[in-house]
Amino acid sequence: MTKILILGGGFGGVRCALDLDKKFKEQAQITLVDRNSYHLFLPSLYEVAAIYETNKDPFTVKMRKTVCIPYKDIFAGKKINFIQAEISAVDLKEKSVRTKGGEILSCDYLVIALGSQTADFGIPGVREYAYQFKNIDDAVAINVKIGKLIKKMDSGEKMDLLKILIGGAGFSGIEFAAEISCCVKKICRERGMRDKHAIITLIEAGPKILPMVSDSERNIISKRLTELGVVLMENSPIEEVGASFVKLKSGQILEGDMVVWTAGIKANEFLKSIAGLPVTDRGKIIVDENLLVQGWKNIFAVGDNQEFIDPKTQKPVPALAYTAVDQGKVVAGNIYNILNGKNTEAYKPYYGVWIAPVGGKFSSAHLWGGWKVSGFAGWIIRELVDLRYLVSILPFRKAIAVFRQEITMFTKND
């Protein structure tokens, strides 16, 4: 029986496993390995960091359940073996993977979907002092810290304004800044605290936020952020980060109660340890048009850990959830085709759609055909997109239950 091993249970890895299960009956043994017992729904991570009334969930169980979807639920009734383990070594020639627990997994086909990690761009202090924003523990840590600061303000121990500095004004930074502004406003208003409650500063190194969007869409997002009280600082590269400050390259020092880092991602450092794995200067796996790893006939790569050059633009395809899903589908199809003597399918990237939540029930969406929607309608579309994804990986009733829980928890800031 053909053994197919998938490393990583992100959007690409999960989709690849589910599609392989649909295509094969008894012809293949499908195994997915991940260090966690759950699939992290990253698009809603900012909601966890900024969720309201966490005192009612002291052990953060409900918070985690909204974005951490157990693999046992996703793979229930499927012919997919799940192994919770951390990878310690990969031998491409021997077609084997070793876990930190000492287990050796052999395979005929390998799919590398190990994701990415936070990029600090060599800036001093980022790793030591800034709150990272990549996984569920990061989001919970941010939420707990903000909760403690609010309590200090409430008790009078902290007399000045709450100051949050956010490094990086990409989609993640914008979503978090907007939502935390809504959260803090509601908490302070309900506790009878002064109107001017917080200064949330969003710092962008580039000349403008979200350079990939149109000027009209950028203006809508910028206006919304300003209305929420978020201070935008463009063309302000950071030189150093401390526990309570950010120093810009201009020499200006911004003081704050905490620094949150959302400035970008880079390839998983573990990839460098894999002998024979071709990587770019940025450490990402080099793949061909079929998403096969360059130089190998039985190894594929999907998601953030690989670099696929779009033949139309000659630029790398951006690391997005739905591009990883599309890649997972293509790889599953190609493995099936190879094993059945059929031609492989070239990956044809599409990434012209995006939806940016900007606090409360407000989102800016750029949809198929260039259709643009903002405000409450944009928020509805975003929720429907989330529901569609949940239904694609879970049984219908389970998907609805997760979606209902998410809506109940995450609309408390509105």
Automatic annotation (TrEMBL):
Pfam families: Pyr_redox_2. GO terms for molecular function: NAD(P)H dehydrogenase (quinone) activity. GO terms for biological process: aerobic electron transport chain. Gene3D superfamilies: 3.50.50.100. Its cofactor is FAD. Keywords: FAD, Flavoprotein, Oxidoreductase. Residues 3-328 form the FAD/NAD(P)-binding domain. InterPro entries: FAD/NAD-bd_sf (IPR036188), FAD/NAD-binding_dom (IPR023753), NADH-Q_oxidoreductase (IPR051169). Belongs to the NADH dehydrogenase family. This is FAD/NAD(P)-binding domain-containing protein. The lineage of its organism: Bacteria, Candidatus Yanofskyibacteriota.
